[in-house]
Each structure stands twice: as structure tokens, then as C-alpha cells.
Write a structure and sequence with these properties.
Blueprint lengths: L7 H5 L1 H7 L5 E4 L5 H8 L4 E5 L2 H14 L3 E5 L14 E7 L7 H7 E12 L20 H4 L5 E11 L2 E10 L6
Parallel strand pairs: 1-2, 1-4, 2-3, 4-5
Antiparallel strand pairs: 5-7, 6-7
């Protein structure tokens, strides 16, 4: 099985992500196997890998140790318990192939002024290609930017991609709010 590659969005915005994370790390939220966060860590960016699967995080911990990466892991379920992002600050948050709408407010509050969000997940057209099919796991077209209207939108996309064939929505945005 070929090694899963990171999202091209990260390469396209790598310099901006470096600037955004000079003082606080990237949160790879619901990181799964960590392919996207590992790309950033291998490029000198501090990353906190967060997921509810201890086995995935154990593999990431092993890679972090073997490669001496500036990264760590956090075992957390973002859908249960209290607001796990409360009181935490990140230079950027990356989210790929995961959608839990109640988290959008917390994600925005956890990203420092000047920080970034990189978000990519499936939209409703994905039903034509396979899973997921349930509405709670699929964005409507144009939905993702609505959560970040008060931020500087750097990239948005709703459509079909080929590798693998799927329907996705993407957003890259910068928090331009003024701190209180």
C-alpha cells in the first residue's frame, strides 16, 4: 500500500503556517494517522497531534521519537465531555476529513490573532462516490466559509478532486481579529 501523502494545501501555505506558528504550535485536530501534521513537523513546525485513538497516537509518538520531531500527542475526544479547547491557544489548527460542527466556535477561539485554519473535508456531493453519506459528516457547498466570514479568507474550494476521487470543501483563513 503506498504511503498516504499530505494535503497540497499545506505545501501551498507552508510559509504562512511557519509565520503563524512562531509562538504557538499547530493543532492537528482529529489527526488520524497524522500524515498532514507529520508533513508540518518534518518542515520544522511544532505540532500537537490530537485524536481519540490511542493506537494511532502511539504510532505517531514512535515516529516523533525516531525522527526527533518537535511534536507531541494529545489523547482527546472532541465530541465528549467539556470543551477541550477552552483555555488553549494555537498558531494554527488543521482539520482533514473530520466534521463536528459544534467545534467551529471553539476552534476559532483557540486560534491566536494572526493564526490560521486549514480545513478540508467531504461535502454533500461525496454521496456519489461513497462514504461518508450521512448529513452530519458532509458540508453543504459554501458552508465552510460561513463559519469564518470575519476572518481573511485565503482559499476556498467546493468540488471534485481526483486523487482519490471525492467531493470536498476546503478553506484556508487567517484570524485578523484584534485581541482584547
Amino acid at each position: 500500500m503506498p504511503l498516504a501523502l499530505h494535503s497540497p494545501l499545506l505545501e501551498q501555505h507552508l510559509d504562512a503556517l511557519r509565520r503563524a506558528t512562531l509562538t504557538n504550535p499547530v493543532l492537528d485536530l482529529a489527526c488520524g494517522g497524522g500524515r498532514n501534521g507529520l508533513f508540518l513537523a518534518r518542515n520544522g513546525i511544532k505540532v500537537l497531534f490530537a485524536d481519540r485513538d490511542p493506537e494511532s497516537l502511539a504510532i505517531i509518538d514512535q515516529i516523533i521519537a525516531e525522527e526527533s520531531l518537535g511534536a507531541s500527542t494529545w489523547l482527546v475526544d472532541f465530541e465528549k465531555g467539556d470543551e477541550p479547547l477552552t483555555g488553549k491557544t494555537f498558531g494554527a489548527v488543521i482539520v482533514f476529513r473530520y466534521l463536528h460542527r459544534p467545534l467551529f466556535v471553539s476552534i476559532k477561539q483557540a486560534i491566536q490573532t494572526g493564526g490560521m485554519i486549514v480545513y478540508e473535508t467531504f461535502n454533500v456531493e461525496q454521496r456519489e462516490f461513497g462514504r461518508p453519506k450521512r448529513a452530519e459528516f458532509l458540508l453543504e457547498k459554501g458552508e465552510l466559509p460561513k463559519y469564518f466570514l470575519d476572518w481573511q479568507l485565503l482559499h476556498t474550494f467546493d468540488g471534485i478532486v481526483q486523487q482519490p476521487l471525492s467531493a470536498i470543501s476546503q478553506l484556508v483563513a487567517k484570524n485578523t481579529s484584534v485581541s482584547a
